[in-house]
Amino acid sequence: MPTFIDSSRPLSRRGFLNLAAAGAATAALSACSTVSGGGQFAQAPEIVPPTPTIDPVLGDYVSMYGPVSDEGYEVPGIPIKKVKPQFLRQVVADPTGERPGTLVVDTSTHFLYLVRENGEAIRYGVGLGRAGFAWSGRAVIQWKRKWPKWTPPDDMIGRDPKLEKYSVRNGGMAPGLNNPLGARALYIFQNNEDTLYRVHGSPEWWTIGKSVSSGCVRLMNQDIMDLYDRVPSKTPILVTNGLGMA
């Protein structure tokens, strides 16, 4: 059954909170200057990106990215201090101009936006496909799955024959913590045809903000689980290399 956007959970900039004290303290320490040999001169302080703010409705980052028991799987927590702050889930002013309920993936910045009411959006960091493998355009989330199987397309198997054991002919890779689609998958169709492009989870949190996969949009498992619960099937999606270029 489709899961519909929860409009009873309004998002407000007024309620933004700072990161948890531990994360803030870590950011502050990374900006400390050190004293050179003679003690007379200090190095210029390192420029540290501002820590993101989050709406109280989203909760704190320690809880947001902590370990999760889900559908019989134990999803490990994310070491949030090792993730660049801009790629953590947060509420931002909507830069897309799209109507509420739309998903927008900006491949130029490695961000995915869920457009909300009142000029706001929830922003997630994503990992993306290598150059030459990416897809772009307007489409819809035709359907979605929890703990999906992974079936690499034939062209991918052609490049790496070892993947044949996971082909459609062989039943695909079973769901699990090491499955490339992670905890959830949203399947993108255009004109009622499968683009073979997915928005999905990944156990490889360190790839967020990078272009290393074979063509799909990957989120940290905790983020794709959150997004999955916020969008129904048939949700419109725009994948674009730079906002305003659709």
Automatic annotation (TrEMBL):
Active-site residue numbers: 200 (proton donor/acceptor), 216 (nucleophile)
Keyword field: Cell shape, Cell wall biogenesis/degradation, Glycosyltransferase, Hydrolase, Peptidoglycan synthesis, Signal, Transferase
Domain L,D-TPase catalytic: 101-240
Pathway: Cell wall biogenesis; peptidoglycan biosynthesis
Pfam families (UniProt xref): YkuD
Signal sequence extent: 1-27
InterPro entries assigned to the protein according to its UniProt record, in alphabetical order: LD-transpeptidase, LD_TPept_cat_dom, TAT_signal, TAT_signal_bac_arc, Transpep_catalytic_dom
Tree of life domain: Bacteria
PANTHER family, per the entry: L,D-TRANSPEPTIDASE, L,D-TRANSPEPTIDASE ERFK_SRFK-RELATED
Family: Belongs to the YkuD family.
Name this protein carries in UniProt: L,D-transpeptidase
Lineage, top ranks: Bacteria, Pseudomonadati, Pseudomonadota, Alphaproteobacteria, Hyphomicrobiales
